[in-house]
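[audit] Reproducing an earlier prediction to check determinism. Same input, same settings, fresh worker. If the tokens differ from the archived copy the diff job will pick it up downstream; this log only records the rerun itself.
[audit] input (513 residues):
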Amino acid sequence: MRSPTSGPADRQLARLDASIILLIVALAVVSLAVWYSTGFPGVEDARALDIAINVAAIIVGAAVAILAWIRWRDTSEPVALYESSAFVALTVVNALMIGVVIVGREADFGLAAEGPGEAPIYLWTLTRAAVAVLLVIGAARSLRREAPPLPATLLEFAPAVGLVVSGIMLFGREAILPPVPGAEAFDPGGPRVLSLSAVSTAVVIGQVAIFVTFIVAAILFRRLYIRDGLVSHAFLAAGLVVAAFSQLHFAIDPVVASGVVTSTDALRLAFYAILVMGIQAELGADFSALRHANAELRRLRDVDAANATLAERTRLAREIHDGLAQDLWYAKLKQGRLTQNKSLDEEARTAAGEVLDAIDSALAEARQAVMAMRVDPDAASSLEEVLRSYVEDFADRFGLRAEFQSDGTLQRLPPRTEAEVLRIVQEALNNVRRHADATLVRVRTERRGQISRISVTDNGCGFDPAAVPAERYGLRGMRERAELVGATLDIWSRDRDGTRITVEVTQTEAIGA
């Protein structure tokens, strides 16, 4: 998930940095308290808790590895491949350890609490070093946008295979492995501060080097979060700080034994808890991005549908103009000549005049249909200009005084809405011409915030809207057109006091905004 603006991104980065600083301070305080306590900070005879922690580690580690692999296949980001490889290795070693415990072979592999061996300590140290190095290399390569030097499959599974082989070799040489200073401190009443020697100093330096590597990995993942805005990188940066302190605890108390839970295990559990929160946050971000993408797809679908509708209406308008309208014009011309034929009797001349009026009315309807179907949101003409042109044409054709007034520029409406509004105005003007016996009709447009209002007012004879027969489709058609586009239609009229028809459209988002 990428932050849409620099402001939210800066705030998210500030929260991440504050969280990491607080985490470092809290871990430092807890670590000092643990290291200088009077007894060994471990819980013996906690077999169920130890198994639960390791099972949780396997599940979370596998989930992180799978999600990272999916991200690698989707984005080809090197860091995702190395991250997946690191957690595959970690998960495999966790599974190896818990498998030994489940089959009851702890004593054979140095995991018995009564006599912990050196091999598990060496294997865990090697595993954590490998994980830290893989994460650092992956993050660094991704920041430099360098492709992995080896095939993905090899990088994915080679570290895990190497660690398993190393574990088998270590377990096989358990009897001759050099002792690890500090492991002998597995004594509930033993001293907390170990005496330093050349060997113990070298071991502690090695563990501190792994601690530093984890810190470097946390810094690099913070930089990746700044670059990519990926939520999981932020959580992994915080988790690696916890992993680094866990390594320090392991340096002081290097004990790996079945049924024994130490402060190192507590920090491991905290590390995996942070990863779980990272997975949850990343899934939430993905779902949010998916919702936005679906909304954008719906918008594009609506735009495509509108464009297709406009194209079809333009085609129909062209066909009406070039076909039906031309034929009606030709018929009107011929019928006009026929009405002037002196050989016709009075009754035939009257019938010919009525046919001429019908043709003229049909031609006017065809022109109105063409005008309505050619309303285009990308055209230079606005709805006000189209209405003004139509009102002027109406006045010229029917000799009725018609005025157009505009109060503010109407917000651009969807093409379907503009077409239906125009048809409502056309129907209202036709009703004025046919039924109102008016001498003046006024079309007015106005905008009040998000509301566009168009009204048609005449000074005609008026009528009772409630008394209009149901079989009369003029007013009913106007209401249906308004409902189709979510507009409201208001009809006011009184006998001998004129009529006012008002259509209002509320548009929450301007076209093209």
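[audit] rerun output stored. Observation attached for the diff report: Residues 263-339 form the longest helix (77 residues).
[audit] end
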